[in-house]
């Protein structure tokens, strides 16, 4: 019984520290202007939580993610447009923060190769088609 | 005592695998082969159940149990804890491998002896590779240096029934492809004049592997859906990609085997696919197990496991691909078929699956390559995959709807139109009907709904048409895919989300439902304590539909929190509630989802599984009939 109470006390105590246990935007962060909030959500979904594995800040419970969510909303309220916000974030945290990598020299192959694969595929199909027609 | 026996059984497995490898090279079945196959099965069963025993009785002197278990853990999770960690999961891998080994020898008869023995030889080599890997780098029977009385616990989010059976299903999939690999190698290495119908043997294994891999992936998604608490079920996580890539190639393999069987065409292509699919399965294991995904640097910390698997892939890869390069010519048989034919449609989809697979592979390893060469860190996340994979999948699904209706060899273009005209009408009607209900338009939404009903109506028409015999397993599985697409589209396009702070007795609305926060209570589970909220959900007529009870759990041993979403499902929608943090003065953070038609994803997956099982049966029967 004492153990049970003890655990519950620890739990309640700890839960104060892990306040952002819920995985996402918190109600207090949400902007009143719906259009602005929508923009903030959209941006947050493309921004990586730097200390998590493969999570956007929109989904993450980390404090850093929360700070970034608030930061993005501040910037929106200050009248920044989406591109300016992305630029601000990448200057501060490098391209690592973008879940959709920008087209740059070091991501050239990443964006081009799928098209190359696709083209090769189409070519293979026509090649086979032509060849099998001859026989 | 158990660790000693466990080690002994591992070495015994190694012995029998080596014996099988040596004896099966001699091209005649002797009693020794039977003994080694059985011995391998028994010894791997022994080591697997010895580890399970250690977990069940909480023998904390076994390092593996100490690190992954706790005496208060419920029995189910003590059992699933065996494969919930790296070392134990290798034992499961070996067990499944030896089970397939056993099934292969059951197929033995006088006519196929050379083929089966060669297959067993390759299978034995793979087994040796994995047993050695386990003994050298991941021995689950290592003991602790000090006497331990209690374990460190087991990651709470893995303590879940769906995740308990997810790995075994996945491994049947991965390892099933090893049989296809071995048979491909066997086919390529036997003499020209010994040609046998290798594809008849390969097909049931591929169907089985594919079916179970599908089920495994689906279960993982179900788990992610209710456990991770943000209403989604697929995140393009590298670990998910590691299972998705073999699935894509497996899909291609499965379908092109049909062409080989019916038309003897594309044999070389299929032999190559069988090799690549298994190599990719092992590659997936490498990616997940080596820690390389988190960062190149994590990998560098303890590279022994990663390097071993890499070396193993290199070895079997070079061997099988060289063999393919030198001997594949004999199986080159280019029977004519046109682009507009059943073979043509399968070939198109084969190519598209491979393009998707290559793209996913690229996205998964690209950050590693960039980091290794330039030290820059970049992320490749969901937005990348959505914008590359979906556009390639759309034509694939369009072709999938029509392909099975086409004739073999060549199809008249006017006839094609005649065949698909009813399903075009049906698709249009259903799409308009759906949008009439949901009244929300988006390009992805329209595309998804059209594709879904395109598949569904085509398969319904095939089912009704009695004049032509369609493969029933195929119709069932394809029908499941149609439902799956319906669920995926609706739940991602029409999802509604609500995040608010609520106090007790407050009320809110989502869609047409009123949600009342009734109370919150503390409860105690076997190895956790939890806060459980109680919500009353009413429909528009104020009738109570359900009570939802999301939990916020704390596992004191692991010092870890988890959220347990509470979900009310029916055929039309899921109501999904997650409890966040808070207190009685300020209220609690509550997150709610209205997810339309999400249940059809799971129903679709189950139907695909049933279709797979049906097809497996039919293909197994073919083996029994064929060789005699």
What is the strand and helix layout of this fold?
The complex is a heterodimer of chains A (135) and B (628).
Chain A: H1 2-17, H2 34-45, H3 63-77, H4 82-93, H5 108-134
Helix pairs in contact in A: 2-3
Chain B: H1 2-24, H2 31-56, H3 63-68, H4 75-80, H5 86-106, H6 113-137, H7 161-189, H8 198-227, H9 238-263, H10 267-290, H11 296-301, H12 303-327, H13 342-374, H14 382-402, H15 413-438, H16 443-464, H17 472-493, E1 496-502, E2 507-510, E3 513-524, E4 529-538, E5 544-548, E6 551-555, E7 560-564, E8 566-569, E9 573-583, E10 587-596, H18 599-625
Antiparallel strand pairs in B: 1-10, 2-3, 3-4, 4-5, 4-6, 6-7, 8-9, 9-10
Helix pairs in contact in B: 1-2, 1-6, 2-5, 5-6, 5-7, 6-7, 6-12, 7-8, 7-10, 8-9, 8-18, 9-10, 9-13, 10-12, 13-14, 14-16, 15-16, 16-17, 17-18
Structure description:
The complex is a heterodimer of chains A (135) and B (628). By secondary structure, chain A is mainly alpha-helical. Chain A has helices spanning 2-17, 34-45, 63-77, 82-93, 108-134. In chain B, strands 2, 3, 4, 5, 6 and 7 form a six-stranded antiparallel beta sheet that branches. Chain B is globular and about 80 Å long. By secondary structure, chain B is an alpha+beta fold. Among the domains of chain B are: 1-153; 496-599. The longest helix of chain B has 33 residues, at 342-374. In chain B, helix 1 packs antiparallel against helix 2 (31-56), helix 5 runs antiparallel to helix 6 and helix 9 (238-263) packs antiparallel against helix 13 (342-374). The interface between A and B is large, with 53 and 58 residues.
């Amino acid at each position: 019984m004492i153990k049970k109470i003890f655990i519950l006390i620890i739990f309640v105590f700890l839960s104060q520290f892990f306040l952002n246990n819920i995985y996402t935007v918190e109600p207090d962060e949400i902007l009143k202007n719906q259009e602005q909030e929508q923009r903030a959500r959209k941006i947050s979904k493309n921004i990586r939580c730097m200390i998590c594995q493969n999570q956007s800040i929109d989904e993450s419970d980390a404090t850093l993610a929360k700070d970034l969510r608030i930061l993005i909303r501040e910037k929106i309220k200050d009248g920044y447009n989406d591109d300016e916000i992305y630029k601000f974030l990448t200057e501060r945290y490098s391209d690592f923060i973008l879940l959709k990598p920008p087209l740059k020299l070091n991501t050239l192959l990443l964006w081009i190769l799928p098209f190359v694969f696709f083209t090769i595929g189409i070519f293979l199909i026509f090649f086979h088609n032509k060849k099998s027609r001859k026989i | 005592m158990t660790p000693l026996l466990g080690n002994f059984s591992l070495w015994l497995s190694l012995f029998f695998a080596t014996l099988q490898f040596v004896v099966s090279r001699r091209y005649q079945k002797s009693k020794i082969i039977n003994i080694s196959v059985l011995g391998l099965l028994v010894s791997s069963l022994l080591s697997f159940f010895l580890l399970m025993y250690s977990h069940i009785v909480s023998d904390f002197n076994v390092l593996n149990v100490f690190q992954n278990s706790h005496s208060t853990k419920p029995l189910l999770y003590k059992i699933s804890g065996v494969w919930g960690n790296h070392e134990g999961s290798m034992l499961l891998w070996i067990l499944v491998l030896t089970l397939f080994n056993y099934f292969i020898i059951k197929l033995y008869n006088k006519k196929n002896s050379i083929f089966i023995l060669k297959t067993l030889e390759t299978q034995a080599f793979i087994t040796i590779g994995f047993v050695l890997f386990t003994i050298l780098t991941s021995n689950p029977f290592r003991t602790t240096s000090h006497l331990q009385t209690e374990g460190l616990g087991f990651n709470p989010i893995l303590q879940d029934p769906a995740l308990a059976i997810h790995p075994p299903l996945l491994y049947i999939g991965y390892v099933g492809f090893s049989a296809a690999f071995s048979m491909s190698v066997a086919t390529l290495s036997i003499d020209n004049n010994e040609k046998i119908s290798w594809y008849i043997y390969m097909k049931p294994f591929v169907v089985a592997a594919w079916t179970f891999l599908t089920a495994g992936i689906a279960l993982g998604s179900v788990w992610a859906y209710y456990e991770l608490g943000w209403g989604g079920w697929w995140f393009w996580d590298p670990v998910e990609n590691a299972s998705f890539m073999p699935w894509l190639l497996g899909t291609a393999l499965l379908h092109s085997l049909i062409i080989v069987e019916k038309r003897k065409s594309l044999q070389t292509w299929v032999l190559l696919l069988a090799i690549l699919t298994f190599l990719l399965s092992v590659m997936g294991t490498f990616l997940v197990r080596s820690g390389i995904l988190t960062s190149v640097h994590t990998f560098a910390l303890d590279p022994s496991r990663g390097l071993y698997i890499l070396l193993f892939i290199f070895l079997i890869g070079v061997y099988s691909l060289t063999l393919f390069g030198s001997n594949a010519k004999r199986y080159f048989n280019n029977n004519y078929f046109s682009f507009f034919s059943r073979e043509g449609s399968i070939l198109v989809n084969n190519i598209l699956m491979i393009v998707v697979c290559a793209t996913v592979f690229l996205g998964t390893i690209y950050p590693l390559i960039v980091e290794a060469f330039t030290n820059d860190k970049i992320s490749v996340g969901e937005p990348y995959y959505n914008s590359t994979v979906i556009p390639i999948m759309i034509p694939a699904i369009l072709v999938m709807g029509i392909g099975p209706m086409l004739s073999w060899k060549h199809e008249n273009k006017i006839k094609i139109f005649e065949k698909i005209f009813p399903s075009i009408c049906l698709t249009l009607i259903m799409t308009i009907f759906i949008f009439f209900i949901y009244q929300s338009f988006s390009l992805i939404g329209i595309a998804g709904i059209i594709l879904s009903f395109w598949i569904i109506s085509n398969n319904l028409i095939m089912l009704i048409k009695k004049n032509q015999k369609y493969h029933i397993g195929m119709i069932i599985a394809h029908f499941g895919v149609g439902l799956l697409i319906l669920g995926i589209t609706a739940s991602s396009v029409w999802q509604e989300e609500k995040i608010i702070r609520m106090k007790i007795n407050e009320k809110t609305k989502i869609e047409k439902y009123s949600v009342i926060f009734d109370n919150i209570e503390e409860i105690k589970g076997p190895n956790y304590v939890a806060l459980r909220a109680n919500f009353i959900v009413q429909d528009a007529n104020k009738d109570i539909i359900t009570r939802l009870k999301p939990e916020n759990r704390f596992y004191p041993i692991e010092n870890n929190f988890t959220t347990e979403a509470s979900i009310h499902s029916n055929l039309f929608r899921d109501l999904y509630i997650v409890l966040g943090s808070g207190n009685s003065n300020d209220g609690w953070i509550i997150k709610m989802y209205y997810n339309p038609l999400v249940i059809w994803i799971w129903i679709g997956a189950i139907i695909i599984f049933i279709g797979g099982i049906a097809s497996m049966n039919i293909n197994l029967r073919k083996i029994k009939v064929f060789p005699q």
